[in-house]
Amino acid sequence: MTEGLWRADWMTGLLVALLVIGSGLLFDTFQGVELAAYDFGVRHNTATPSDDIVIIAIDDASIERLGRWPWPRTLHAQLLDRLREGGARVVATTVAFTEPQRDPGLDYLQALLRQLRESSIVTVDDELRTLDERLRQLDEANARLGRKALPQVSELRQYFLASKLRNRLVPDINALARKLIEAEQALETDRQLARSIQQNGRVLMNMFVFTGVPRGNPEHDLPPYIKRNALTHIEDRIGAIDAGLLPPAIIEILPPIPQLGSKANGIGYLGAVRDIDGTVRSDALVMH
Questions:
Q1: β-pair partners for 274
Q2: Domains in the chain: how many in total?
Q3: What is the pLDDT of residues 227-251, one digit of tens each?
Q4: How much is the pLDDT for 25?
Q5: 8 and 82 in one domain?
Q6: What is d(CA 97, CA 254) in angstroms, rounded to the nearest whole number?
Q7: Nearest to 95 by CA among 82, 84, 79
Q8: Which of these, 227, 211, 184, lies nearest to 270 by C-alpha position?
Q9: Is residue 246 part of a domain?
Q10: What is the tens place of the pLDDT at every residue in 195-239?
Q11: Using CA atoms, how far apart are residues 191 and 180, in angstroms rounded to an integer?
């Protein structure tokens, strides 16, 4: 009797397993057919793309012409400036700016500038003015001596008045400082891109999101330049919360750096939802 029971349970388990596997295969088959039909319809869609939308792609030809990726952010800044001058109403970028871009030479240049500002060179102008005044007073006092005046005093002042020490040193130091500051600004590519984003005023940036099941409370609050893009007036008119029909939940984000994100007109998300065949056909309009 026990042997018959084991045989019956084994047969029942096998039938259930086959039923589950068959249902899954059947579901995948029907879903695959549905997706194939959708792809066929999209490929044969006769709708004409709008001329108001332009995709600026970063392709092999661009990289060959402009240099290997990643490009300096000064180049992105120039692109935004060109688009602003061309009258682009909105510019949406999918390039990730999640980390600062810092030129290795910038640290040395900034150290050189700090050393220049902290050195005795910054007081040279005042000291030369004082020396000029003292020599003038000495020359005048010497002239009042009449026959006893020392010609060397007048010669010394005339030499100083004609010297590069008096006429060229301070202007040359100021010119050098300006060049160093210009070089510093040229190497601060994030600052240049931030300025172009702000001047454009119509730039939408992206952040990468990762969805999943939230566990516990977030470790960090969202930065203000991300939170300001949130939907604030939400009404559940269809009972979506009770039915569990909520948008995908975000468990992690990779936002643009604050220096850039805070200047953007808006920030959206990139997080492709792939179908069973690995193809991206749709995306969530909102996430939480």
A1: 280
A2: 2
A3: 998 888 888 888 888 887 788 888 8
A4: 46
A5: no
A6: 9
A7: 79
A8: 211
A9: yes
A10: 999 999 999 999 988 888 888 777 778 889 999 988 888 888 888
A11: 16
- Asked, for residue 265, whether it belongs to a domain, the answer is yes
CA distance 234 to 74: 40
Same domain for 212 and 240, yes or no, is yes
Residue 196 in domain: yes
The Cβ of residue 157 has, within 10 Å, a number of other Cβ atoms equal to 19
**116 within domain boundaries:** no
257 exposure class (CB count in 10 Å sphere: 0-12, 13-18, 19+)? middle
Residues 184 and 103 sit within 8 Å (Cβ to Cβ): no
Q: Which two tokens stand for residue 53?
A: 């939308």
Whole-prediction pTM value?
A: 0.67
Tens digit of each residue's pLDDT (9 = 90 or more) over 44-100: 777 777 888 888 888 888 888 888 888 889 999 999 999 999 999 999 998 989 999
Q: Which residues of 178-205 are buried (b: 16+ CB within 10 A; e: fewer)?
A: eeeeeebeebbbbbbbbebbeebebbeb
From residue 237, alpha-carbon distances to 234, 240, 242, 248, 285 in Å are: 9, 8, 11, 19, 17
Q: What per-residue confidence (pLDDT) applies to 144?
A: 86
Helices and strands in the chain, H and E counts: 12, 6
pLDDT at 5 over 50: no
The pLDDT score that the predictor gives to residue 19 is 55
Whether the per-residue pLDDT at 173 is higher than 50: the answer is: yes
Residue 166: C-alpha distances to residues 124, 133, 154, 188 (Å):
10, 12, 16, 35
Q: Which domain, by its residues, includes 197? A: 60-101+189-282
- Cα distance between residue 209 and residue 268, in whole Å: 10
More reliable by pLDDT, 149 or 113? 113
Are 40 and 66 in the same domain?
Answer: no
Q: Backbone phi, then psi, for 98, in 5-degree steps? A: -85, -10
